[in-house]
Structures are given as structure tokens and as C-alpha cells.
Amino acid sequence: MDRTPSRVSGGAPPGEFAPSAAAVKEGFRRTFGGKPVVFRAPGRVNLIGEHTDYNEGFVMPVALPLATWAAIGLRPDPKVHVYSENFGEGREFSLTGIEAQPTGHWSDYVRGVAAVLQREGHALHGANLYVAGDVPLAAGLSSSASLEVACAFGFLSLAGAELDRRKIAKACQMAEHEYVGTQCGIMDQAVACFGREGHALLLDCRSVQHELLPLPPDVKLVICNSQVRRELASGEYNQRRAQCEAGVLSLRAHLPGISALRDVPLEELERHRSALTEVVYRRCRHVCSENQRVRDAARCLQSGDLSGFGRLMGESHRSLRDDYEVSCRELDLLVEIARGTDGVSGARMTGGGFGGCTVNLVRASAVPGFEQTMRREYERATGRIVDIYVCSAAEGAGPAE
Ligand code: GAF
Fold first, then answer.
1. What is the pLDDT, as a whole number, of residue 7?
2. Staple 281 to which of 194, 202, 276, 393, CB 3.0 to 4.6 Å?
3. Strands of the 127-133 sheet, one edge to the other
4. Which segments of the chain have a pLDDT < 50?
5. Residue 307's pLDDT is what?
6. CA–CA distance from 200 to each of 142, 176, 214, 292 (Å)?
7. Is 263 a catalytic residue?
8. What is the reported pLDDT for 231?
9. Atom of ligand 1 nearest to the CA of 186
10. Residues in contact with ligand 1 (CB, 6 Å cut-off)
11. Under a CB-based contact definition with an 8 Å cutoff, are residues 305 and 287 in contact?
12. How close is the Cα of 49 to the center of ligand 1, in Å?
């Protein structure tokens, strides 16, 4: 999905498709005819708590104004015809007997969501579906979850089904496991469902319960896209998850009560370090320390301690770089440049890693200077152009008019 990234604060350049409820309605009318209903689901940026979700730990994501819109209308047969504005192509599949076989095509997300919802007992109707979004692809901002959740809302509304957001998030996560092949955690789908304007979510990924934390209104979330594309399904992500699970297995011989790294305080990990290989120990150290950082960061936000929050973001980045080994030269560089720039209280890589984006907390009045510095210094060092999205926390998924 080669989605043209747009500047959130500036909108799409003249002449380019700018996704919105009105634009996808019009796209639907052109492609299929008739009047659809429209749902929007946001991408996300994670402030802190990386690779902790599949260890049943804590995360602190924010829903973005970047989103996917899905326009949906009934078909008379049990088929789904889905057209993606971003890919400029459509696919069709039958709702009967959807195979759980990843094909590597973008429509796997849509097939997967339909299949899992049906398995959970929802009688889905055949549908025409027109999707479009402005979450940049493979940038670590969760374009996949936003597509899944927007489609889930669409399918369920046609079926006249009750919308339980926790169940929707879990169904979308399952769809990604089984139909795409990424063993992702619940963070992206949960924040797409539960995000709130002006707030970050403190999400407990074991219970999938969250608390809303107000963000300071004079601080912008500035996302810098390194333009190094990341592919979650490339195997590295699943390998990290397997290493964490191997750690839990070895630690369980000494700590019989644990079922996930969430249950292991850092002191216990240190005590039983010799039970682990060096690599597995470092992976576990990242997760155990990151869980603690998320809880500390929540306290910083609650007490208005932005510089404390920023310090924790810096520690998170170093831990992801050195212990979890999911950063890359370009992300490290973006963090390094940001750290020395006026008005920045925190900077770190965000999302799965291996490329993608950094997230920066920047005083609103310092944003223009920050943007200038990032563009200049990043190009000078890498020859690449950084793409910058200046955001505030947006609302989670719902109907769009
Ligand atoms: C990706 C996954 F989809 C999430 O579940 C999460 O693990 C994240 O990487 C890393 O924190 O976005």
C-alpha cells in the first residue's frame, strides 16, 4: 500500500486524494454506485512501552488524526468486493470458506477480519467496501490496525451487531495473527478502538483495560518518518516474541508463578540471569525495564513532570537500541538530533522498529524551528528527506459523516 504521507497539520497537497468521509463516499459511489455508511479508525503513535504488549505488559499509545476510512454498502450475494484507493485496485472474496492462509496481499487484513468475526458468530452480509487512508504504510504508525478496525466496524454495522470495542480489538488482532502472519500484541487495535482526543491511553495489555491520561495542551506530538520502511511480517518481530517466550519458559523453573514477562520484576530477572542465554537475557531486560518505565511515565504525566517523562523516553530508546536491537542508524540519528533541539522534552523510536518513525514531544511554539532542524540535519547526514507529521491526540474509531 503505497500511501502518500501527508502533513497532518497542513493537509494533502492540492490535487492529491485527501481521505475523508466525503471522499470515500464519493469513491464508493463511483466504484459501486449507491450510498454507503462510513467508519473511520485511526493510526497510532506509541509514547512509551514498546514490545511489551505481547508480554502482557503496559503501553502508552495515542490515537492519531491519520486514519483509514471504510465506506460500506450491502451486496445481494455472500461476497465482499473491496477497493483500496491507496493501492488503486480491488479484490473480491466469498464469505463462505475463507482460508486462513496469508497471501501477502493487502486484502488479507480485510479477509481476516471478516473470517474472524464470522467465526465468533456474527452473520455477516455480502458487502461492497471502499477503503482509503492517510496513515503512511510500513512506518510503524499502525496503518494495518486502522484498516482492520475500520472494516470490522463496517461489517458489524451491516450485520446490525452490537459493537463491543474490546472484542473488536481482539478479533482484529486474531485476524492479523492468522491471516497476515504477524504475531502482534493488542496495542494497535486497542488504541484504534479506545483512543480519545487530547489523551494518551495507559493500557494494561493483560486485562485490555485502560486509563485515559490527559496530555498537556501546549505540547505537540511530532512524528518524524525516517523513510526507512519496516515490514512487520519480515520475521524479526516474530523472532523477538519467541525469544521473550523462551525467557519465560526458562525463568519458570525458578519463578513458578509467572505466565509472561509482565510478572517478572527486574530484580528477579537479575537474580536468575544465569538461567538465560545472553541474548534472551537482554531481550527480557528490555521488556521488564520498559514495563516499569511505562508506569513511571504515567506518574510523570499525572504530576506534570514533562522532563521526567522525556528522560524515560530516552531510556526506552536506548533499551530498544541496545537490548532489544530493533532500532537502526536512521532512527538513532533522528533521536540524537532531536535531543539537542530547543523545545523538545522527549524523543524515541516508536512502533515495532527496524525503520519507521520517531515520536517527539515538542513545545507548540518550538515546532517550526524543530521541523527546520530535523529536515536540515537528517538530510545532511543521510541524504534522505524526513517526513514530519505534527499531531495532537485524536478520537478512536467510530462512524464518520
Ligand atoms: C507493532 C505491533 F503490532 C504491536 O502489537 C507492538 O508489539 C509494537 O509493534 C511494538 O511495541 O506495532
1. 38
2. 276
3. 89-94, 79-84, 127-133, 61-74, 37-46, 398-399
4. 1-12, 233
5. 96
6. 16, 24, 6, 17
7. no
8. 63
9. 5
10. 50-51, 53-54, 142, 184-185, 187-188, 351-352
11. no
12. 10
Predicted local confidence at residue 230, as pLDDT: 72
Q: Give the pLDDT confidence score for residue 18 in this predicted structure.
A: 79
Pocket test for ligand 1, best of 176, 183, 187 (most atoms within 8 A of CB): 187
286 closest CA partner among 247, 256, 334? 247
254-293 residues labelled b (16+ CB within 10 A) or e (exposed): ebeebebbbbbeeeebeebeebbeeebbbbbbbbbbbbeb
User: From the CA of 272, how far away is ligand 1's center (Å)?
Assistant: 27
Contact 179, 108 (CB under 8 A): yes
**Residue minimizing CA distance to atom 1 of ligand 1:** 352
Catalytic entry in 53, 108, 134, 188: 188
Residue reference for cell 446490525: 160
Tell me the whole-structure pTM to 2 decimals.
0.95
> Looking at ligand 1, which atom is closest to the CA of residue 176?
3
Distance CA(160)–CA(158), nearest Å, equals 5
Atom of ligand 1 nearest to the CA of 187: 5
> What is the whole-number distance in angstroms between the Cα of residue 306 and the centre of ligand 1?
24
CA of 35 to the centre of ligand 1 (A): 35
Distance 235 CA to ligand 1 centre (A): 13
**pLDDT tens string 342-390:** 999 999 999 999 999 999 999 999 999 999 999 999 999 999 999 999 9
pLDDT at 98: 92
